[in-house]
Design goal:
The structure holds two protein chains of two kinds. By secondary structure, chain A is an alpha/beta fold. Chain A folds into five domains: 5-154, Glucose Permease (Domain IIA), CATH 2.70.70; 170-270, Histidine-containing Protein, Chain: A (2-Layer Sandwich), CATH 3.30.1340; 275-292 and 415-513, Glucose Oxidase, domain 1; 306-408, Enzyme I, Chain A, domain 2 (Orthogonal Bundle), CATH 1.10.274.10; 521-840, Phosphoenolpyruvate-binding domains (TIM Barrel), CATH 3.20.20.60. Chain A is built from 26 helices and 35 strands. In chain A, the strands form six sheets. Chain A has an eight-stranded antiparallel sheet with strand order 9-5-6-7-11-3-2-13. The longest helix of chain A has 25 residues, at 306-330. Chain A starts with a strand and ends in a 7-residue tail after the last helix. By secondary structure, chain B is α+β, with helices and mostly antiparallel strands. The model of chain B is unreliable at 10-28 (pLDDT under 50). In chain B, strands 1-2-4-3 form a four-stranded antiparallel sheet, with no helix packed on it. Classes of the chains: A alpha/beta, B alpha+beta. Chains A and B meet through strand 2, helix 2, helix 16 and helix 18 of A and helix 1, strand 3 and strand 4 of B.
């Protein structure tokens, strides 16, 4: 029996003490995880309260456990419900398994970000191994980081009986974890607490790993994620009861609100036959799985003399830059080249280099310094709460890895790919994807990434199907597994049967045939069978896209997103540059067609470097579009002046985004007239507004006399009408433009416009959807502005329709109750009126 | 000059879109007592305030140097966390949860 000793724990943070009983979280207040103290922090670096080994650090960086050599385990948990931040706002400074000294910095956190995005910053320090302790401070008052706070009695642990009862273990069925963030601290505590009620020795298994089910830390160290398949095993007298109770607890979410998980496969196969994700690039393919795994690199913290390390770093940076330039020069498309150009810019970023040099001067190695500074910056990108910047963090990590390999002399291994490969990975980096042989790769499926990630962009540029947001389970697939990737449905089907394969082949053949037919007729007018002409125009954001659109038969441009001139740069574009760009686009279109230029549409959701704005708690309801332009009228004035310079080259239209009040239109028109007068123009371009805010759709009859045209931006109109963020992970699928409420607003707009002899276009994503064509035509829309590759398909869809039929179906569906019903009705209409018609049966 | 006129015109039409130069903040502000506001350098020094994270009030100040830490503590602020750019978190304790 060891003599009890005292171990002093230091305050991990400065801050204000709060009594544990008062913590507004039943798990912590009930001491289910352990007893300790709670600090409301005023410092933003969590420091080690004791010396020991980091026994677990959550991937999301919000919680960490240290085990001392004497077995005392201390858990620190920053904030309440911070697991939902998924790592944003936290920078881990230590790794699991690393030995730390008391007072060492463990996790940096962005207190402001967490305060604004999580429930609370209240930070817990809990003795989870259960030793009794004396408090050296009261239950309230101020603490300084590093100040001794608890005296823990070592060697008096209640200890559990490690001697396992002899006998065979009882195993549960595999259980798919329903918890959105896996078994993080709170559900793990509930689970461990329940396990402790049984005398049996109980383990929780995930893949090959297992954990003592009575140990909170051990469970957390399994790093489980939603959808992971786990099993419970128990050995001892009450083993069966334990397995039964704990299985039920896991299925029900261990006290967390969870949605019902997919039923467990009865056969015991852990892998369902179909894995589901989100479409990142449409299409489908049949092939075999190949997984890309990034090797972890060993980095020594301390280096040689600073000049030597600096030299090593700059050498690696030069080599990386050259390699990127080579990739850029040999890239198969503009999209790829653009990404490598962005990577080169990241490499040249002075703040990255400054940080790395500062670390080298402290005696760190070049590799360590570079790794630390790129990781910290990537974490900062992620913490800004902006999806686009978070995707750029992936780019930074990629380019960081490239340089790191050069410093360490690790050679890129070239991937040997079999024919018909479907690549799977946790996350594919742009470097990995760009070097791929697209003749052999047929598609991608990744766990991470989103529709705006570079991988998705590359996949779309190469025309390869891709899905992201796949369950982690996918990574356990063996290389060579036959799969059917159906990106349109967001599905990966394992071991597809002959019938599915046949269906896919037939579908491919039909699509190819239809596509060729559409292309052949692209230049013909889009007239319905009863003779109504519909303008099919293009949504573009560059001169090259405009040229491509005109080749594909566009009747001009229905939406020029002028933001492309302003984004990704440090200063506003000069007048000459703007004029040159607008003129080139206008010339490409020519005097026979419309060019609709939308004025700068930026705001808090897509900020510009040189238009500083205060951060807004809800940018979609903030200073966006015309609101921002009228706040900074000089920007708008300059843009008008540049657009007007091309008024003789094409049928010029100017369109204002996010208009809510008539006054905004009047004010903009006034500025436009002044600029036209300065240029001596007698003939003003047409001026119209976008219908995105429900208010202007409802007021369309009042606005119509003052505009030359309306163009409906269905994406924003839908999210504002339904009050659903179109990027919300749970709501996005319901934020559907086919909702009857949106259709009624479109009908209202068209009616008002036509009463005053004005035309109405639709430039939102809805116009590019084949299924929506009869609906929009039936509602009376005059122009469809669509994404460039879809121009031939939408034109051909128009030609298959009778306007009279469209009017009937449009009126009918406007009275249905949901978007789903509308889609079903249109599908039936399509089957009866289009597929069944004799025109298509040749 | 023209911009000023236009701004005034614009404001008359759409009062919600153009922010007032001087924020109306004389009345007691959610989560902040009069003594706290005075310790922060007065209403004029207050750019914004927002109750956050159950126990904190996030304030943005024009000039963080005008904060009187001692007076804040007397006014009942248990802790202050300066975050740069004039932003401070004042730890004022648990608010009733709705």
């Amino acid at each position: 029996m060891a003599t009890p000793q005292q171990l002093q724990l230091l305050a991990p943070l400065s801050g204000v003490l709060m009594a544990l009983d008062e913590v507004p979280d039943p798990v912590f207040a009930g001491r289910i995880i352990g007893d300790g103290l709670c600090i409301d922090p005023t410092s933003s670096t969590l420091c080690a309260p004791l010396a020991g080994v980091v026994s677990d650090v959550q991937v999301s960086g919000h919680a960490l456990t240290i085990t001392s050599d004497t077995g005392v385990q201390v858990l620190m948990h920053i904030g309440l419900d911070t697991v939902n931040l998924a790592g944003k706002g936290f920078i881990r400074r230590v790794e699991a398994g690393q030995r730390v000294v008391a007072g060492q910095a463990l996790i940096d956190f962005d207190a402001d970000y967490i305060a604004l995005h999580a429930r609370s910053l209240l930070t817990l320090m809990l003795v989870v191994s259960g030793e009794p302790f004396d408090s050296l401070v009261g239950s309230t008052g101020l603490l300084e980081v590093g100040q001794p706070v608890l005296d823990v009695g070592v060697g008096v642990s209640p200890g559990e009986n490690p001697a396992a009862a002899q006998g065979d273990a009882v195993f549960s069925q595999p259980i798919n974890l329903p918890n959105p963030n896996g078994l993080h601290a709170r559900p793990a505590a509930v689970f461990a607490q329940a396990a402790k009620a049984f005398s049996a020795t109980i383990h929780l298994h995930r893949l090959q790993a297992q954990a003592n089910a009575k140990s909170l830390v051990a469970i957390m160290a399994l790093q489980t994620a939603q959808g992971d398949s786990v099993q419970v095993s128990a050995e001892g007298d009450d083993a069966e009861a334990a397995v039964e109770a704990l299985t039920r607890l896991l299925t029900e979410g261990c006290g967390e609100a969870v949605t019902a998980p997919a039923p467990v496969e009865v056969v015991g196969a852990e892998m369902p036959n179909i894995l589901r994700g989100v479409c990142a690039s449409p299409g489908s393919a049949l092939g075999q799985v190949m997984q890309i795994v990034e090797a972890t690199l060993m980095v020594n913290e301390f280096g040689a003399a600073p000049p030597v390390e600096r030299e090593a770093l700059s050498q690696a940076l030069i080599e990386a830059d050259m390699a990127l330039q080579h990739l850029r020069d040999t890239a198969s498309g503009e999209a790829q080249a653009e990404i490598f150009r962005a990577h080169q810019e990241l490499l040249a970023d002075p703040s990255l280099l400054d940080q790395a040099h500062a670390l080298i001067d402290e005696g760190k190695s070049a590799a360590f310094a570079w790794k630390t500074s790129t990781e910290a910056t990537a974490a900062m990108f992620r913490s800004l709460g902006n999806a686009l910047l978070a995707e750029r963090a992936a780019d930074l990590a990629d380019v960081g890895q490239r340089v790191l390999k050069l410093i360490l002399g690790v050679h890129e291994q070239t991937l040997e790919l079999a024919d018909d490969t479907i690549l799977i990975a946790d996350q594919l980096t742009p470097s990995q994807t760009a070097g791929l042989d697209t003749r052999k790769v047929l598609g991608f499926a990744t766990v991470g990434g989103g529709a705006t990630s570079h991988v998705a962009i590359l996949a779309r540029a190469c025309g390869l199907p891709a899905i992201c947001g796949m369950p982690m389970q996918m990574l356990t697939l063996d290389n060579g597994t036959r799969v059917l990737l159906d990106a349109d449905k967001g599905e990966l089907q394992l071991h597809p049967d002959a019938e599915s394969i046949d269906q896919l082949r037939t579908r491919h053949a039909q699509q190819r045939q239809r596509h060729q037919q559409e292309l052949a007729q692209a230049s013909e007018a889009a007239c319905t069978r009863d003779g109504q002409h519909i303008e099919v125009t293009a949504n573009v954001a560059s001169q090259s896209e405009t040229a491509q659109a005109m080749e594909l038969g566009a009747n001009g441009v229905g939406l020029l997103r002028s933001e492309f001139l302003y984004l990704d740069r440090q200063q506003a574009p000069s007048h000459d540059e703007q004029v040159a760009t607008y003129s080139a686009i206008a010339r490409t279109i020519g005097p026979a067609h419309n060019l609709v230029v939308r004025t700068l549409d930026v705001g808090g959701d897509k900020p510009l470097a040189y238009v500083p704005m205060d951060s807004e708690s809800n940018p979609f309801l903030g200073l966006r579009g015309i609101r921002l332009c009228l706040e900074r009228p000089q920007l708008l004035r300059e843009q008008f002046r540049a657009i007007l310079a091309c008024s003789a080259l094409t049928r010029l239209h100017i369109m204002l985004p996010m208009v809510t009040h008539l006054a905004e239109l009047r004010l903009a028109r006034q500025i436009l007239e002044q600029e036209a007068q300065v240029l001596g123009l007698t003939h003003l371009p047409k001026l119209g507004i976008m219908i995105e805010v429900p208010a202007v759709a409802l007021m369309a009859d009042v606005l119509a006399p003052h505009v030359d045209f309306f163009s409906i931006g269905t994406n924003d109109l839908t999210q504002y009408t339904l009050a659903m963020d179109r990027d919300h992970p749970r709501l996005a699928s319901q934020a559907d433009s086919f909702h009857p409420a949106v259709l009624r607003l479109i009908a209202m707009t068209v009616k008002a416009a036509h009463a005053h002899g004005k035309w109405v276009g639709v430039c939102g994503a809805m116009a590019s959807e084949r299924l929506a064509v009869p609906l929009l035509l039936g509602l009376g829309v005059d122009e469809l502005s669509v994404s460039v590759p879809l121009i031939p398909a939408i034109k051909s869809a128009v030609r298959e329709l009778n306007l009279a039929d469209c009017r009937i179906i449009a009126e009918q569906v406007s009275n249905l109750e949901s978007a789903g019903d509308v889609r079903d009705a249109l599908q039936r209409f399509h089957e009866v009126k289009v597929d069944g018609s004799p025109v298509m049966e040749n | 000059m023209f911009d000023k006129l236009q701004q005034a015109f614009w404001k008359a039409l759409t009062p919600d879109l153009v922010p007032d130069e001087i924020k109306v903040a004389a009345n007691p502000i959610e989560g902040l007592s009069a003594a706290m506001i005075s310790a922060l350098g007065g209403v004029d020094n207050l750019k914004s305030r927002q109750p956050v994270a159950l126990t904190r009030v996030r304030v943005a100040l024009h000039d963080a140097a005008r904060v009187d830490r001692e007076a804040l503590s007397v006014a009942g602020v248990a802790g202050v966390m300066p975050l740069g750019d004039g932003v401070l978190h004042l730890i004022t304790g648990l608010r009733a949860q709705g």
